[in-house]
Each structure stands twice: as structure tokens, then as C-alpha cells.
Amino acid sequence: MYCPYCRNPDSRVVDSRLADDGSAIRRRRLCPQCGRRFSTVETTSLSVIKRSGAGEPFSRMKIINGVRKACQGRPVTEDDLALLAQEVEENVRASGVAEIDAHEVGLAILGPLRKLDQIAYLRFASVYQGFESLEDFEEAIQTLRQQAKDNERVPSGARRPLTAH
Ligand SMILES: [Zn+2]
């Protein structure tokens, strides 16, 4: 690992810390040449298996690109998309697998996208889950309505806090 400041190919680990959920190790490193410190994050490699059977590294950018079209014209920012991709990656990594089907990545997107924007969710789900009729939409909308009702019933204090980073 090159020092990002002076490109020295050698560095010394001064601190190692496990992420709260155990999915990553963060190391503080010291460059013996320029004396600056930098961090590296070590995670298991995560492969997405495509329908053809070929694997490729999990990419947040691919998630964002896959969802962006469904978000056209919606009040969804690039930051929202980046957070969504991060949440998808965290959820997938938390399941502890080294490989995941592309199809399951799509499923992992549905939940966070539903919270982000319901219209974008319907667009994405209609393509991804192959909606073929108005009934398919009706069913999805009914589920959304039901969930909105369920959320109202949860006292705000009981909601799960956002994960701190
Ligand atoms: Zn250096």
C-alpha cells in the first residue's frame, strides 16, 4: 500500500480497529518516509454473480446507476443515492456472504429505495420484478399504504436509530 502523500511503498500500522458490526477493520498507518498518517479499511471481497455465471466485484456505483433512472424527476439527490448504495452494501455485507446473486442485490435495493421515494420504488420494482398488469401495481401500492399505516403506529421514540459512522 503506497503512502497517499509521498508514494512511499512502505508503511507501519499504528492502530487496528474492528468496525462495530465486525465487517471491516480500519488501520491507522504511519509513513516512515514523510511521517504522515493515513487510514486503510480492510473488508472481505464481495462478488456479484451475474446471470451468465460470471462474477464481478460489488460496486456502489452500479447500484447508483441502476437506481438513478427510476429516480428521474423525483426529489432525490446524489447524496441520497450514495447513502442508499451504502445502505445496500452494509446490508449485504452484514449477511456475511462472499458472493451474492445479482438478483439478490436487486432485492436488497427495494427496501432502502421504498423508504427513500415511493414513486421511484414503484418504477424500479415494476421493471425489476417484471410487473405485467395494473393488478401488480395495485398490489405494490397497497403494500406501501399498509406500511405507511404500520409506521404511523410505531411511537417515534421506538424507531431504530440510524447507525452512527
Ligand atoms: Zn509518505
Keywords:
165 residues; alpha+beta; three-stranded mixed sheet; binds zinc ion; metal-binding; NrdR-like_N
Describe the structure.
Helices cover 44% and strands 18% of the residues. The protein has helices spanning 60-68, 78-94, 102-116, 118-128, 134-153; strands at 12-18, 24-30, 37-43, 47-49, 55-57, 99-101. The strands form two sheets. Strands 1-2-3 form a three-stranded antiparallel sheet, with no helix packed on it. The radius of gyration is 20 Å and the shape is elongated. The two termini are 24 Å apart. The relative contact order is 0.10. It binds zinc ion. Residues 3, 5-6, 8, 31, 33-34, 36 line the site of zinc ion. Zinc ion (ZN) is lined by residues 3, 5-6, 8, 31, 33-34, 36.
Which sequence of SSEs, written as H and E, runs from N to C? Answer: EEEEEHHEHHH
The end-to-end span amounts to: 24 Å
Instruction: Provide the β-strand percentage band.
Output: 15-25%
Shape: elongated
CA radius of gyration: 20 Å
* SS content category: alpha+beta
How does the major sheet shape up? 3 strands, antiparallel
Major sheet strand order:
1-2-3
Number of DSSP strand runs? 6
The low-confidence parts are none
Helix content class: 40-55%
Tally of contiguous helical segments: 5
Instruction: Let me know the average pLDDT.
Output: 88
Write out the distinct hetero groups bound to the structure. Answer: zinc ion
Keywords: ATP-binding, DNA-binding, Metal-binding, Nucleotide-binding, Repressor, Transcription, Transcription regulation, Zinc, Zinc-finger
Function: Negatively regulates transcription of bacterial ribonucleotide reductase nrd genes and operons by binding to NrdR-boxes.
Family: Belongs to the NrdR family.
Pfam families: ATP-cone (PF03477), Zn_ribbon_NrdR (PF22811)
